[in-house]
Amino acid sequence: MATNPMHQFEVYRIGPEIKINHIDISFTNASLFMIISSIAILLVFNLGSSKKSIIPNKIQLIAELSYSFISKMISDTAGTKGKPYFNLIFSLFMFVLFCNMLGMLPYSFTVTSHIIVTFVLAAFIFIGVTIIGFIKHGLGYLKLFVPSGVPLILLPLIVVIEVISYLSRPVSLSVRLFANMMAGHTMMKVFGGFVISLGIVGGWLPLSFSVALTGLEILVAFLQAYVFAILTCIYLNDALNLHH
Amino acid sequence: MQRKIVLLTFVFSTLTFWNGYSAESGGMPQLNPEFWISQIFWLIISFGILFVILSKFILPKIRNNIELRKSQILDNIETAEKQKVESENKLKDYENLILNSKNEAKNYFNDARKKIIEDINKKRLLLEDDLNKEIERTEKEVIDLIDKAPEKINRIAIETSSDLMKLLIGEDVNNSSISAIVEDLSKKNKLKYYGN
Question: Which residues in chain B are contacts of A88 at CB distance < 8 A?
Answer without folding.
Answer: 6, 51, 55
